[in-house]
Amino acid sequence: MSEWQRIFVQNLTVPPHSQRRRHLPRESIAFQCVLKYVEGNLIKQRVLESLSEVEYQLRLSLFDISYRHFFGRTWKSTTRPLKAVPGQPPKVVFNETIYFHTSLNHPSIVTVVEVVAAAKKREGTHQDLSCGFGILHLFNTKDLASQLQLYHGTPRALLHPLLQDLIEQNKYMTVIENTHLQYTLRPHPPLETMYHLLPENMLVSGLQKIPGLLLTHGETSKGSFHSDSCMCKSDHRTVRLA
């Protein structure tokens, strides 16, 4: 498989629910989401004690609550180690910046963040374990710099018919105490100049390859753009992403 074929396959996405696609198209809205760190008890779960080389990963997906339908393509962060400081809660620092745009301007459209532990079993095989997930609303909030509460289980629980609208108030959703994801979410108009290069409902971070989009200068951190120095070139124009 050639490099271009590999990139094409990686960029395939799951379409929105058919009922949602019947609605008249709206103008797409661009977002920037910064996933800063996870802090609290979920990253010291007892089930992880028998595993070695444990690191943590964030996975971000788009979800339609009304139709219980995941769509787009799940974005995965690089794995990061646990930082333990005496007298402070355990923390995993990510500092990942994600960009995307969607025309599905409806309160039922959310992003789902999953915390995953990537570890090695005693026999040497690798295993991914879900440590919890959170629901990040896009269209019924203002610019956010906040803490996202996390729930026990995996995002697959959202597909269960007992979980209808107002998911966070459902009795089957159990909050993980003293645990949160620190994040920011806000509209990001500079991305609008690159809509023709970035498919709708595709979540991307700074170091991902996008055909037609080149990094021109600025330092990059592992898996993300530095917000004060990243610029990209598109059709002979220079566009600041962040």
Structure description:
With 242 residues, the chain is mainly beta. It has a single domain (26-208), classed as C2 domain (Immunoglobulin-like, Sandwich), CATH 2.60.40. It is built from 2 helices and 14 strands. It has helices spanning 3-10, 18-21, and strands at residues 29-40, 52-64, 69-76, 91-102, 109-120, 126-137, 144-151, 175-187, 204-205, 214-217, 220-221, 224-225, 231-234, 237-240. The strands form 4 sheets. It has a 5-stranded antiparallel beta sheet, with no helix packed on it. Strands 3-2-5-6 form a 4-stranded antiparallel beta sheet, with no helix packed on it. The longest helix has 8 residues, at 3-10. It is globular. Mean pLDDT is 80; it is low at 218-240.
Question: Brief description of this entry?
Answer:
This protein has 242 residues and is mainly β. Helix content is 5%, strand content 45%. It has two helices and 14 strands, in the order H-H-E-E-E-E-E-E-E-E-E-E-E-E-E-E.
